Amino acid sequence: QICLSLVKLLFYLAHSPLGSIVLLDFQPRQFVMVDGNLKVTDMDDASTEELSCKEDNDCTLDFPTKSFPLKCSMVGRCEGINEKKNLFNAYRYFFTYLLPHSAPPALRPLLSDILNATGDLRYGINETLRAFEKVLHLYKSGLYLQKRPLLLKDYISLKGFRTVEGEDYKCWPSYSHLGCLLSIHSAEEAAAICNSQSQCQSFVVTQQRTWTGRPLASFQSSWTDLIPDTNAVVYIKHSASSGERL
After folding, report:
1. Beta partners for 23?
2. Do 127 and 159 fall into the same domain?
3. pLDDT of the residue at 45
4. Dihedral (C-alpha) 18, 24, 30, 32: value to the nearest 10 degrees?
5. pLDDT less than 50: residues of the chain
6. Domain range spanning residue 12?
7. CATH, residue 119
8. 218 CB-side CA count, 13 A
9. Same domain, 136 and 157
10. Contact 144, 188 (CB under 8 A)
């Protein structure tokens, strides 16, 4: 969410009515999240000036660990230097820390491609935004889910119940520090997640939603403490419930 919002912001800056705007003091502390969108808190160090040049050798974009040769345009300006400077700063301050984590395994190669392409400046802001929107579409639609055996048949579902909330086993990347709370596309995906975790014996699909509209599911190591909840459904492994009376 943070990276996508940042890319949308940089897309606007690259195509602003004033021209391509560069953020000269590009640091994480210069941004804040407002209603799920990333905003710049200080525009004092923004500029529309692009480096002037006489030849391509005048257009090297330098960073502490990398340098990029750019083209000198017919009007004597380094082509795309403001856009590329913003994008590489987004890569080194945000993408490298946030993109490798938290995504479903099937989407990680796509995010790795974005990371590598922006780190080498092979993508401009237009290509980067398209790549992010493709990943978002796959994530929201569930199209990233590979065909797999149907696992939900191995669970008993109890509508109108949930387990008692409390501290349980933890997982990454959980939305709760007390247990294992993950976003899912469907109960079928939740069953696959539960099967992959040795501690998991049950899960509850809640009414909570993430910013993409995906429901949250709570994965738990037991199921015995059930309480009524008209908005919830608890799924219990057949193996966990064998010998027990429901």
Report:
1. 46
2. no
3. 82
4. 40
5. 243, 245-246
6. 1-144
7. 1.10.510
8. 22
9. no
10. no
Residue 200 · residue 219 · CB < 8 Å: yes
Q: Say which of 25, 42, 120, 225 is annotated catalytic.
A: 25
Which residue in this structure is represented by tokens 């000198």? 72
Measure the CA–CA gap between 43 and 72, rounded to whole angstroms.
Answer: 27
Which CATH number covers residue 180? 3.50.4.10
Do residue 128 and residue 157 come from a single domain?
no
- Which pLDDT score is estimated for 245? 47
Structure tokens given for 165: 């909330």
Residues 6+ apart with CB under 8 A from 172: none
The token pair at 151 is 């696992």
Question: How big is the chain, counted in residues?
Answer: 246
Q: Specify whether 99 is located in the same domain as 209.
A: no
Rounded (5°) CA angle 8-213-159: 170
* pLDDT score of 104: 85
How many angstroms from the chain centroid is the CA of residue 67?
Answer: 28
Helices (H) and strands (E) in the chain, counts: 7, 11
Residue of 213, 205, 170, 209 lying closest to 189 (CA atoms): 205
Of 213, 235, 216, 214, the closest CA to residue 162 belongs to 235
Can you tell me which residue has the tokens 């017919």? Answer: 74
- Could you say which of 144, 173, 208 is where a domain stops? 144
- Which pLDDT value is given to residue 242? 56
Residues 137 and 184 in one domain: no
Active site residue 56: no
